[in-house]
Request: fold
Amino acid sequence: MKPCLHYGKFLATMLVACAILAGVSAAAAAEYLGPTDVVASPDGKLLYVVNSDARQIAVFDPATGQVARSIACPAKPTGLALSPDGSKLYVSCAAPQGSVVVIDAASGQTAATIQVGYGAAAPCVTPDGKRLYVCNRFNDDVSVIDLETNKELARVPMVREPMGSAITPDGKTVFITNLLPNDASSSYDVAAHVTAIDTATNETTQIRLPNGSSSLREICVSPDGKYAYTVHVLSRYQMPTTQLERGWMNTNALSIIDAAGKKLINTVLLDDIDLGGANPWGVAITADGKTLCITHAGTHEMSVVDTTAMLEKLAAVPANEEEARKAGRYDNPSAYSSVTVNDVPNDLAFLVNVRRRIRLQNVDPWGIAADQADINGPRGLDVVGNKAYAAIYFSDALVAVDLEPRPGKVTTKLPLGPKPELTIQRRGEINFHDAALCFQKWQSCASCHPDIRVDGFNWDLMNDGMGNPKNTKSMLLTHKTPPAMSAAVRETGETAVRAGITHIQFAVRPEEDAVAIDEFLKALEPVPSPHLVNGQLSEAAQRGKALFFSERLGCFKCHPEPLYTDLQMHAVNSRGQYDRRDDFDTPTLIECWRTAPYLHDGRYTSMKQLIAEGKHGDVSGQVESLNEQEVNDLVEFVLSL
Reply:
């Protein structure tokens, strides 16, 4: 599919894009199972595996080590929850018109289909089995469903791209992770949120994580209901990208939330001083609440954390400098890795003797997997007794991890199908997400480009000098819309890929690695906008389209079809306080509905703000003459691309 030719051609292929919301071509996705999550039955005798690429739920029997049966899904499954008695599966299926498929666990037959929002994901059921909460990722809200009638009762607004959910044992609070920050990236403090929903009122509380928090994925709640745990990347985006040692650019973190108080307790790092734990993804806790398990999708590991020891250590850290002085921590600072609570999110030694790192992958002496299809890309997980089971996305398998510390082998690979034969595009996708390509494994390409798009930060890359940060760009259409950087310092997407490996990953890799990434990025498809109505432009967007292509505004002169960019540099009065030039690359507008904040320095959080306040486009058109309705119409069209 060519990216957004005239709307007729684009919409004609939209159903293909709907099936592949991760942005990978249907042909590539169809060859793999792509397990992304696993949920155990209440008795632990069966594991239900979400095979996203194959559009199925695999029912796995740990006793036999075999898939007992597979249940087909009508669209790409993204998450699964079980009714409290285990008799029903609630499977979220992502599409512009998302749905939850209710499946009878015994027969595998569909009992009902519940319509929800765009990009449905992460369903969770209340302990009494009466309500279901579903994240509608691209609508930025959560559906509340009455399971007695299978009807949607309400939509609860979120911050930005809700991705994970967990409910307290008393059913009073649902915690939702928001994938991305929703701040101007030119701000001093940019961070994603966890949203707490009061199930009685649907009122929300926003729990802001530390500056630099992004890529929030899964979340879990302790069995006693006291704590919520979520994992994420913690970026040091305000530092010049001159090195990687000691987490200079990206660190990887666990945030602990006071569930009753709905506030952040603190954030601890999951890296070691000289070895990163890139891209934490899944998080689950044992039934006794004493052990927390975390998958690292970028380093193919599992962290096993002693929660009792961690919480005791956190409680012992003084709240401020005055308390630290009274405790004598300033008298012997070398004895303490964190002097006050403010030090903890920067403390690479805090979890020493509290956390075990379990390698899931067979690697050579340089820490690189000999076989990329072996165990690559652990994502969601669940715990049964003293075993944790993780879904291994690129390997079409599960891995069982024995949580009891003992000598000998603690991991077992459990194939869900035949060993996948990797195309060059799939190898490129693996490389994009694999921190083995990075010095000391601190980050992967996906650390700054979650789901191959944006992280919401400005980064001071050294390719155009120091002290002039730029907003992270989406990788969609990178190879079709040169130059690749806002300041045009990389002439092509191919050049940018190789420069990224050398100057951002600080690694020397075979040319074949970069070629595979090229092919993966070239295969990406745009995802239909949530602003479309049944796949068509709304009436407001149609009016906005007329304005866009009018001589009065002249938007089309710099953003012509089909790519909505003229591939040229222009000075549009966007120079910021740190810039050394006036002209910048004209970005494609395709999928700009999901790439906020806007302009090269991310100073505007919304498209309306860019046009109404920033007067973007006033160089070539009469933007100041627009009334409020015309601004809204123009915004609606642009966000529909």
Remarks:
- The chain has 13 helices and 33 strands.
- Residues 1-29 have pLDDT under 50 and may be disordered.
- The radius of gyration is 24 Å.
